[in-house]
Amino acid sequence: MNQLKELSALKNSYLGVRHGQSLANCQSLIVSKPENGISAYGLSDAGKDQVRKSMNRAIADGRLDGKIRIISSDFKRARETAEIAHVMLGAQREIQLDSRLRERDFGDFELQSNHLYETAWQEDARDPSHTLNNVESADSVIERTSSLIMSLEKAYQGERFLLVAHGDTLQILQTAFLKISASKQREMKHLETAEICELSFST
Question: What is each CA distance from 20 to 72, 124, 138, in whole angstroms?
Fold first, then answer.
């Protein structure tokens, strides 16, 4: 369930950033389970450089500064992205880790070729509630990510948040902000590694 559907406006503003290139990306592997993603498969050297460049651009154009609150997935590749951002921004508050921003669980595809993403995405377009191959449904990702936003909306007002997460997680979250079906997630703008996006809200 998309918890944002009941809102007519947001009290805060939100940007998302996909983690930089990870060691899993380099190996074309799907790493989506906590037992693999929390302690291993962090950023590659190129990924760290991507994050630095992305942060520099966002600082230069005024999108990010030290006042922003950083909330990150607890997967290593996202944590390391958040840590680089925190230092470069001179963020005034500590990074918050939240499991609701974790990578989508790709079930039986874990540690297999990332070409298998397409299999899940094709099924998403037909049925966002599907769990074929034990993949976490897109609807489930909407539920957990929108619950995070709702908790922030209840706790804060007039704040800006940088959500450090994963490609599928952020694209599905964008469908929640737009109040459309998670089946449309692949119609959202594809996020490159370390790319920052404004999460647009539909009234």
Answer: 13, 25, 23
Contact of 73 with 148, CB cutoff 8 Å: no
How are strands ordered across the β-sheet holding 69-72?
A: 96-97, 69-72, 160-165, 13-18, 196-198
| CATH numeric code, 3-198 | 3.40.50.1240
Task: With beta carbons less than 8 A apart as the criterion, state whether 201 and 52 touch.
Answer: no
pTM > 0.85: yes
How far is 78 from 21, CA to CA, in rounded Å? 10
Q: Please state, in angstroms and rounded to a whole number, the distance separating the CA atoms of residues 177 and 200.
A: 6
Mean pLDDT per segment of 10 residues, for the chain of length 203 residues?
A: 92 98 98 98 98 97 96 98 97 97 98 97 96 98 98 97 97 96 91 96 86
- The residues spanned by each domain of the chain are 3-198
